[in-house]
Amino acid sequence: MRNVSIIGLGCTKFGEHWDKSFRELIAEAGIEAILSSGIEGKDIQALYGGSMASGRFIGQEHIGALIADQLGLNPIPATRVENACASGGTALRCGYMAIKSGEYDIVAVGGIEKMTDVGTQQAAIALGGAGDQETELFHGASFPALYALMARRHMHEFGTTEEQMASVSVKNHKNAMLNPKAQFHREISVEDVMRSGYIASPLKLLDCSPITDGAAAVILCESDKAREICEKPVEIIASEQASDSLALIGRKSLVETMAAKVAAKKAFEKAKLKPKDINFAEVHDCFSIAEILAIEAIGFCGKGEGGKFTEQGKTAFDGEIPVNVSGGLKGKGHPVGATGVAQAVEACLQLRGEADKRQVKDAKIGLAHNVGGSGATCTLHLFKALEGRK
Amino acid sequence: MRNVSIIGLGCTKFGEHWDKSFRELIAEAGIEAILSSGIEGKDIQALYGGSMASGRFIGQEHIGALIADQLGLNPIPATRVENACASGGTALRCGYMAIKSGEYDIVAVGGIEKMTDVGTQQAAIALGGAGDQETELFHGASFPALYALMARRHMHEFGTTEEQMASVSVKNHKNAMLNPKAQFHREISVEDVMRSGYIASPLKLLDCSPITDGAAAVILCESDKAREICEKPVEIIASEQASDSLALIGRKSLVETMAAKVAAKKAFEKAKLKPKDINFAEVHDCFSIAEILAIEAIGFCGKGEGGKFTEQGKTAFDGEIPVNVSGGLKGKGHPVGATGVAQAVEACLQLRGEADKRQVKDAKIGLAHNVGGSGATCTLHLFKALEGRK
To answer: Are A243 and B70 in contact, with CB atoms under 8 Å apart?
Structure first.
């Protein structure tokens, strides 16, 4: 049985990069990952790049080959993976399986999105392609509207309040203050969220993650080899993925994200762990309600309890289970294809004790939960630090 | 060591499907593949779907989840793979590695493109995203122009003639006459090609593959298990992939496709075979010059000899090495994301002796060569029939 560890990390600052292109962003993250890994570019045997809508954001498909080219890695196999906002998590899983297969020992995984080269309306339409174009976007249901339906139903079934949802954004903005790579360095209050104006009721502007440019990269290595060449390898102790109906209309429930539940269940079984064994989690808070759905699906709290659980501070930096210490998608930013890889980068920083001011104490096991669309794809990874070379 | 075989096949007719949507096409191919495989849908453990530009052709990303949904396969992991026109071959390789990894025993692989829902100009721009948007498409160099540069250089260096290139199209249209699923059922002559009007000199209309709608699917299975459940499993005896610079400007040569050379060399080493051991090949003839470059890169003939080799009939149905017996991209059609999977379907039909009027005699080993862009990605697969259950 071959196991897989992360030995190198790279991540650009997340934000509006008017002065940097898609290529420059992925090169920056990729080179940082290679330089931090103890290997050289020529040691990399394959590459997986996650990007959701490069065709519609920058007119460029075929970005696997572009990344290999940009990093001087030709002629290694290079593959773009796309699962909407879970493109990064899926690329990580493809890299993981490529090493598991025995075909490769060292694989680079990147995630990237350059979203600000188009106008907001065009971006909304491009992002709408993550849902069901025929039954949702075509009829005007862009992503805030889809998550608003879930939020409204959660309020109806469980009494979740707008203030509880707001507390997700407040926490994540607060956490982002300690992350130099985060898009936003501005604390917000529940009142700020409440008066920030409806985008799709009950979701307001500050319930929504932003449009972001950014890239992240990790270098994966077979674990035995990783222990030899790296001081602090971080093993992927579970990598799972599941799917659900693309459109909300196909779901059995609007308040349970089944793909996340299935992926989490399999991951915990694989790693022989339970939710209470997790020391911190990076979850997919594209909207405040999404974090509430995530912590319920993973099992940090019971069904319907996510709003209260958050409001009570249990997912805060110093809470029972710190969620999105990085700032999450809301505070750190959400360059869609990069997000899943950036979550892995944060998990490694925490497990290696390199998270500086936002270091979670005694972080042994980390979790990353990355969602595509309104929940049709979910990847779930568990991470644990290994003893590497001295 | 786990090996991987194909146990089920499906392919729609290739052509202009005004009456069928993306979903209907992939459902048709997928269901045919499942029904022909001896398994049921519930036995499928993961899915990889290749599509190049679904975002720009039909406004839909996240098509992995869409396909799983459409085929009723939720909640299995479903992943879209995109490597331009090599998306299908890359999806096949991802499925192959997923089984090799030990994570799954049975995996579905699909390829699809619905190209006729947009106008020709928009299609040309979408397809241009397979090359380098910044140094090529932005300046007006769409795909016929890029391949025209390669064709012109091949003519200059080796004396290749326009008539020799035309002979590729003539052969492939002739072969397509015997393939009921081909887009074109019309024989053409060298004279027809020569007077068909320049698209980008020296390439004329009939040197170019068409805009096509279509889908193809295969069911992969671990080989030991495949032998138990399938009468005629076809083993993937080599799966290789390589990359080259995205833009032509980055290449050392315009007349050698390095990614194809690297992938072919590795595949032959892996399978301990030589080009002369191959009984038939499906190669990526998106333009007539592309087939000439392909047969040179694979090693069916020497460098610069591809034009003469074709003109002499050596790649004809009854020639030394039959190339594109299916009709190839030129005759069968080229729904870009589907092509690599459709090549695998053709290889299986030939190796199982089910290719009807176009059956290659004593077909033991087949080859599929799938190219992304102007050559920045190449996948190369070798196939061999196994003895299955009686």
So the answer is: no
In a domain, B131, yes or no: no
With CB atoms and an 8 Å threshold, state whether A75 touches B258.
Answer: yes
Q: Give the Cα separation of A63 and B229 in Å (integer).
A: 38
Cβ-nearest to A83 among B60, B80, B259: B80
To the query of whether residue A85 is one of the catalytic residues in this protein, the response is: yes
> Which among A11, A85, A94, A286 is annotated as catalytic?
A85
Examine the residue annotation and report whether A17 is marked as an active-site residue of this protein: no
- Joined tokens for residue B29: 């191919």
Residues B1-59 pLDDT 10s = 899 999 999 999 999 999 999 999 999 999 999 999 989 999 999 999 999 999 999 99
Q: What domain count does chain A have?
A: 2
In a shared domain, residues A10 and A147: no
B334-388 per-position pLDDT tens digit: 999 999 999 999 999 999 999 999 999 999 999 999 999 999 999 999 999 998 8
Answer whether residue B390 is part of any domain: no
Q: Is pLDDT of A45 > 90?
A: yes
ipTM: 0.97
Cross-chain CB nearest to A56 (options B55, B79, B372): B55
Contact A223, A2 (CB under 8 A): yes
- Cβ neighbours of residue A254 under 8 Å, at least 6 residues apart? A149, A150, A153, A154, A248
B357 and B372 fall within a common domain: yes
Task: State the Cα–Cα distance between residues A53 and A87, nearest whole angstrom.
Answer: 10
The minimal CB distance from B103 to the residues A21, A97, A250 is found for A97
Measured between beta carbons, which residues in chain A are less than 8 angstroms from residue B131? Answer: 62
Q: Are residues B83 and B177 in the same domain?
A: no
* Cα Rg of chain A, angstroms: 19
pLDDT tens readout for residues B253-303: 999 999 999 999 999 999 999 999 999 999 999 999 999 999 999 999 999
Are A144 and A36 part of one and the same domain?
no
The residue of B4, B61, B96, B135 whose CB has the most chain A CBs within 10 angstroms, and thus the best one to mutate to test that interface, is B61
Domain encompassing residue B151: 140-209+237-383
Indicate whether A218 and A193 sit together in one domain.
no
- Smallest CA-to-CA distance from B329 within B288, B383, B301 is with B288
Q: CATH no. for residue A318? A: 3.40.47.10
Beta bridge partners of B365: B384
Residue B374, SS3?
coil
Helix B87-100 / helix B336-351 crossing angle, nearest 10 deg: 60
